[in-house]
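Lab notebook, design round three. We kept the backbone fixed and only want residue identities now. Task for the bench partner: fill in a sequence for the structure below.
Input structure tokens:
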């Protein structure tokens, strides 16, 4: 009987905080650029965060999430990105616990299902944080794969007589269809800054901070230190950096290939077991006869 009361308490509590949260955060959440996945329950989760002051009570965890969100989504969501992520985390935990309660009631008030749901709700934060780390790693890998090609194009244009600023702009404008590329999104922001006559040194500095990647920082610092010199020294330094970045790209490509091959191990083992069953089943049936 207590499972029924627990389920009803969840419904009443959820509806109450949802209504109160929607009044306070409904319009604000509609304007956020954060890629929400559970937008329906976010007002309730935001209300819980502010009501119990979760961000202030767990400053270390909040700081970690803040840096991860800034690395993944950029400065556009850096001010509130940690709050939105933690709100999604709370929403996922509430959904998991409610589904487990419903299943426990349908299974004849089986408390073991409710306990399993509680354990799953506790494990959801770990899974979501790891998923955030995985997305950051994939973003960085894509940037490393794309950066050497961009640098090689700049070297070719500079050798052809273009200035560094114009070479940067032409490289980005030549590929307008790469809207999903994390590197070219940042390069496009840098192009807008160059067109607004912001100094090239400032553009490189901002570009390096937005990307927050060692290879990009090396690229920006090398370009910033040598572009004023011009001549052969500038081209030689860029060519040397290009070779280093291409080696880094080969290393990342090799790592991705190894990860792809490791993912095929389980399907291959499963296929092998199925084939063995198909081949051995007739022989076993004949032996039984």
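Proposed sequence:
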């Amino acid at each position: 009987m207590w499972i029924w009361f627990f389920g009803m308490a969840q419904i009443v509590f959820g509806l109450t905080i949802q209504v109160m949260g929607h009044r306070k955060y409904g319009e604000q959440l509609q304007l956020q650029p954060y890629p929400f996945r559970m937008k329906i329950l976010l007002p309730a989760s935001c209300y819980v965060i502010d009501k119990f002051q979760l961000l202030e009570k767990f400053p270390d965890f909040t700081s970690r999430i803040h840096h991860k969100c800034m690395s993944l989504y950029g400065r556009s969501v850096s001010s509130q990105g940690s709050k939105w992520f933690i709100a999604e985390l709370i929403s996922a935990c509430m959904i998991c616990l409610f589904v487990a309660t419903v299943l426990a009631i349908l299974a004849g008030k089986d408390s073991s299902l409710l306990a399993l749901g509680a354990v799953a709700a506790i494990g959801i934060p770990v899974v979501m944080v790891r998923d955030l780390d995985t997305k950051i790693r994939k973003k960085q890998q894509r940037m490393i794969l794309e950066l050497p090609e961009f640098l090689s194009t700049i070297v070719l244009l500079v050798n052809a007589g273009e200035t560094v600023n114009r070479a940067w702009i032409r490289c980005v404008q030549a590929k307008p269809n790469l809207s999903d590329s994390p590197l070219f999104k940042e390069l496009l922001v840098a192009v807008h800054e160059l067109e607004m006559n912001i100094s090239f040194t400032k553009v490189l500095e901002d570009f390096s901070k937005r990307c927050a990647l060692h290879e990009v920082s090396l690229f920006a610092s090398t370009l910033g230190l040598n572009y004023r010199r011009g001549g052969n020294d500038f081209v030689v330094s860029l060519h040397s950096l290009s070779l280093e970045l291409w080696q880094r790209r080969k290393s990342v490509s090799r790592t991705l290939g190894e990860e792809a091959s490791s993912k095929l191990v389980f399907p291959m083992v499963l296929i092998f077991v199925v084939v063995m069953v198909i081949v051995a089943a007739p022989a076993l049936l004949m032996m039984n006869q």
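Keep this in mind before ordering anything: The two ends are 54 Å apart (CA to CA).
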